[in-house]
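Example complex used in Figure S2.
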Amino acid sequence: MSPASASTPSAARPTRVAVLGAAGRMGAAACRAVEDADDLELVARIGRGDDLTAVADAGAEVAIDLTVPSATADNVAWLIDHGIHAVVGTTGWTEESLEGLRERLAGAEGVGVGVLIAPNFAIGAVLAMRFAEVAARYYDSAEIIEMHHENKLDAPSGTARHTAAAIARGRAAAGLGPVPDATEKDPDGARGAVVDGIHVHAVRQRGLVAHEVVQFGGVGEQFVLRHDSFDRISFMPGVLLGVREVASHPGLTVGLDGFMDLG
Amino acid sequence: MSPASASTPSAARPTRVAVLGAAGRMGAAACRAVEDADDLELVARIGRGDDLTAVADAGAEVAIDLTVPSATADNVAWLIDHGIHAVVGTTGWTEESLEGLRERLAGAEGVGVGVLIAPNFAIGAVLAMRFAEVAARYYDSAEIIEMHHENKLDAPSGTARHTAAAIARGRAAAGLGPVPDATEKDPDGARGAVVDGIHVHAVRQRGLVAHEVVQFGGVGEQFVLRHDSFDRISFMPGVLLGVREVASHPGLTVGLDGFMDLG
Amino acid sequence: MSPASASTPSAARPTRVAVLGAAGRMGAAACRAVEDADDLELVARIGRGDDLTAVADAGAEVAIDLTVPSATADNVAWLIDHGIHAVVGTTGWTEESLEGLRERLAGAEGVGVGVLIAPNFAIGAVLAMRFAEVAARYYDSAEIIEMHHENKLDAPSGTARHTAAAIARGRAAAGLGPVPDATEKDPDGARGAVVDGIHVHAVRQRGLVAHEVVQFGGVGEQFVLRHDSFDRISFMPGVLLGVREVASHPGLTVGLDGFMDLG
Amino acid sequence: MSPASASTPSAARPTRVAVLGAAGRMGAAACRAVEDADDLELVARIGRGDDLTAVADAGAEVAIDLTVPSATADNVAWLIDHGIHAVVGTTGWTEESLEGLRERLAGAEGVGVGVLIAPNFAIGAVLAMRFAEVAARYYDSAEIIEMHHENKLDAPSGTARHTAAAIARGRAAAGLGPVPDATEKDPDGARGAVVDGIHVHAVRQRGLVAHEVVQFGGVGEQFVLRHDSFDRISFMPGVLLGVREVASHPGLTVGLDGFMDLG
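Predicted assembly (1052 residues):
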């Protein structure tokens, strides 16, 4: 934050942010991103075993939770009870635990508190998913190719599965049937996985990070959406978007797209 | 199909369609597309010099105008006066001639008549433009590469110019300034054209038809939209979409996106 | 061929060409391509059931065989016996039938006759295969994505299988082991087919024709080869290259690359 | 490893390597790469102002020069005089200074010493350039799109210029004339730079590093070469290839391709 704006009494006061899970790789990147943002101030770094009281003591208005599945539910409950908005990137939330959150947010302490649970902070992945659902209505064919580094353990990626579901929703809304495919002979499984009726291919390649290509085809044309994450730092604009918007979205929001203007 | 016709016992009665400019390449393709569609019936093919009376005599409900800039305004005026919906792909419309259309549609004869003026019937190009405007809000960098066959006379393409304008609108809405670019030395103009602040590159290559790539960049990531037209037949789904929707959109619509569900 | 060059007595005399299988789609395209070439003259179109004598009677120097597997071996034997060079695109040749060809070419009639058997006339596919073998030596990872129209019956394509074999040869020559791949969980087969140790993915999409992408990866980098056939006319430059070169390559050549300068 | 060393009982003895310019970013990366290679041993790190004597004292067999244009010529002369092979990535060499090197290598001290001057250690860029020259012979159209981070000062890149020259050589060898291009109207320069007759486009985009796309087009088809450098670590395989091969290539070699098997 620049000294000049810091001296203005008005709206320029930066938002006070705490990071939970600050010692992890994502957490450390989030700390740096908050520090580098003029409109945000990092007031607490909480590691494993640290007392959450420090978050309240530091006067945090928003907390970023990048901890582990076993800790995140308790963390968020505590934050709600203390009137602190939460931006949560930790996975492991179930429909049941989300329902618990909704109840707590509807209670006395939760009034006015905003919680964002975002399984994917990559803005580009969110855009790809949304655009895929829209484009799917207009094309006969749709396929997904996801590409990751050679150390990824599972295939296909969760993002690819979610994108396939989005395409299936778009096709259903448009009354489209199965994708056309005349394959009769595929002894080695070259046509890949089928997720919600959509073929999904997973490439594993040294030097890559996380990439998704969605291809749509109609007579005489092709439409392609592609998102490339070259570095985990690419998640930070999504994290900061969440931090900046969460206070003006009281209650529970699932998915970063809830804070984006995708109209 | 309009609610009115849906209520008839034989809901399957096809919509009666006339094609103006039926002898041209686009017109001939449109005739074939209408003939191939189960829910449409081709009732008149009008060529240069043919009397428009045949359109009304044939009982056409919708007319597709794929004629020439010098004829299209008179054609559409005649269609409105005869209560026939119009789907127009002919270029050459000005703000003034569009205003004339609006007035005629607001008049006695025009009530309930729908007119679609679509400079681009490629659904993929329309999607690319809309998605580009949305994505532009979230990325620091944006550039366009359009690629066409070697016989194209002008560069860049009109679609690329429109896409640049859409990106500029998206950036302005998000309060983004100029794209970052440290270029100091570019003696031969490799950075291409600048349209509305966006760099646009035009490739001319034998074997290609009409292609557009829009690239967005942020720290550690890239987002890409690509549309490939391999054949002019790719315009036909857009033409048919217009024919099917125009009756339920009385008044003037400019741009195929007005009939699409892009939310 | 232009009248002017036809009147010169010297090298400008066009080569006399016959097309066998002239009524098929590939054959008809070959006839047009020969007619359009200044240095070639189409002297015979042979269809199913026509007598091959017409080829000799017309004074053909080179014959293009684009017939069917059951006919091609007899056709080529006849051409050799009549001292006519052959360019063969028909599939179905076995090691045994090729060996028979070699013997006949080594006999009295075969001296000086050139025969090219080319399973793939797409110059780009030949380039991609050769370059893939070379590049494979220098990268840890290699994968193939082939993409075709939705009516293709088999997966993966023959070209993709040949390319996988070429990559495997390149890796073996460089002493490379298996491609790195940590996948532990792939319940739906998203990793695709494995051909000669190389993962191959097959996309089927309306609007596409025949496309191949070969991706190589190393630490911090990627190298990609891509070939797109938008139209079967793209095979014609390869056919004409064969016709022009076959007379100067006596004996049997298998693969168009034998006539190309790929050094 | 050279045949001589291969004959020693402990063939596994690693080659002793010094790095000049070890404190720079490329130099530091080279030190790490040498340390990580089982067949190499880092025996000296030389920074600005350090005495080169340490290189000889440490028994280095090969030295990697990643210093600055003003120092590299003297460094290499010294290395030759001490019988130490040199792998040089520093730019700034002129025809004149290269000629001086050749003379020194032909002299008494230079016998058997190998020097590699490599303006580009990215194996993928070297492959792209070589393949581009070969492919250029077979296609009517050729264009280059290079893409870099937004902080690059010059356009187009040196690699793109060299690639354009390679394409021009390939086209000349095949007797091809100018690329087909009907452009009549390009008021804003969208067709980009023309280098050796080839159109070159430069994209500048945040999040990218260094990328080159070479597109070839013929009737009905496209052939594409693409190289992506995501990280400067991608130069290291090329540096190590140079270190491993330089002893078996006495005399001067300009360009990493001189050590590669590109046949």
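Residues 3-117+233-259 of chain A form a domain with the Rossmann fold fold (CATH 3.40.50.720). Residues 32 and 42 of chain A are 9 Å apart (CA to CA).
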